[in-house]
Structure to design on (122 residues):
């Protein structure tokens, strides 16, 4: 295992766990820890973003690349993740089962559209 892969593994595990724990704390009313959950989730997101920058630096690539394809891919990914999240909230929090499932499937389809955009069709 290369050093950059090991660092990525450790940082993404820590960031993912903190983000997931923060979201559980924020979304489960039984826990009564909304403010603390948002703070822990935000710390997890920051660790994950730093992990991306560290991995690019260790790979010898520039830390941030701005071009049309990167912006389009990012917007598609963010839109897909938000739509999927809204669908999950509709089913689990707002008691809107069928519309939530439909919105969630639309989000999954948007995220699946990232594959041909990133890899290209051959």
């Amino acid at each position: 295992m290369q050093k950059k892969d090991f660092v990525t593994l450790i940082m993404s595990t820590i960031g993912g766990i903190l983000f997931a724990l923060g979201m559980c704390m924020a979304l489960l009313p039984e826990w009564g820890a909304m403010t603390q959950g948002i703070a822990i989730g935000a710390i997890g997101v920051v660790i994950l973003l730093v992990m991306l920058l560290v991995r690019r630096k260790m790979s010898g690539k520039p830390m941030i690349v701005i071009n049309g394809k990167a912006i389009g891919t990012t917007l598609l990914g963010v839109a897909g993740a938000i739509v999927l999240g809204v669908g999950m909230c509709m089913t689990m929090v707002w008691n809107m089962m069928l519309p939530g499932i439909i919105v969630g499937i639309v989000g999954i389809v948007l995220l699946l559209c990232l594959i041909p955009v990133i890899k290209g069709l051959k």
